[in-house]
Amino acid sequence: MRFSDTLKLTFKKALVTGGAGFIGSNLVDAILENGINVSVIDNLSTGHLSNLSKVMDRIAFIEGDIQDADILNDISKGCDVIFHQAAVVSVPQTVEHPVESSMVNDIGTLRVLEAARKNGIKRVVMASSCAVYGDDPGLPKKETMPVKPLSPYAVQKLTGEYNAKLYTDLYGIETVCLRYFNVYGPRQDPSSPYSGVISIFMKKAIERKAPFIYGDGNQYRDFVFVRDVVKANLKAAVAEKAAGRVFNIGTGQAIRVNDLWEMIRALAETDVTPEYKEPRKGDIKESKADISLAKSLLRFEPSFPFETGIKETFRWYQNSQIYGD
Ligand code: UD2
Question: Which of ligand 1's atoms lies nearest the C-alpha of 89?
Fold first, then answer.
């Protein structure tokens, strides 16, 4: 994705933590396409080297953990921006392993911020999550609404936001946190039962197997295409007046789970019918972003209508060796 916009990408070298993952690797591609140098640190716990195979000869890659201060200091030297995407991203995994996930999501994030401080890196763009809003019924979600974290994951993401703000206020590092809503697109790994619903439905439809729908399927989410999330990251790296702030990154549109399956079923040309199950424990019913702050300060505007994003994603799953097989 060439970044042809009113905002110029003024940075020369970037570090992407978690750059072998779903969102991170899409971000790496986009940064390279804009002629900017990229370094990547990833411990490959959930990332895949195959996500970087096409660009490996053009990046500096280190297989390492963000908890390792020495490696981080080394690889971030000379960078103008860090895009911090590395994390334990599964909510249930953080419920199962609150301490271990905190080491990565809390301490690891602090290490990233520290590396930025040590190396005088201008800006850090950090992945946060709509999970921080919890199950508060207020919709659409605005950044000014009260937070209500309901899992270690949500607490960890919120802690990351607070630490980011501290690093801006105390040390002058420009930090920008992006609260991702339900991200989907090429390279999302469908192999765990807690993977994103779109990746799971894609795999099921291609295999002509019945998907599970939890509850009545009328629950809705704000699904945002990964390349729009990438664009939001690039804008967050250069936008003025963004430092020390958090932004919702979604589309402002809601798609119900039933409609989602119907669209994917139609793309796959299958008539498999879903199997309805009890609602998933702890699931929120509805989620949708108010993105007016990102629109005004980041000049973020999603470019991929859902129908376009879902078609592109379907093509990718059709043509790829799906992870976990
Ligand atoms: C998203 C995030 C999660 C956290 C949370 C905060 C993803 C993948 N997860 O969880 O990290 O930020 O938001 O609220 O973005 N569903 C089915 N069948 C399936 C799988 C899911 O019906 O096989 C339903 C599920 O019950 C839910 C909806 O689809 O109502 C979305 O599920 P999800 O796991 O993709 O994402 P979500 O919103 O629970």
Answer: 11
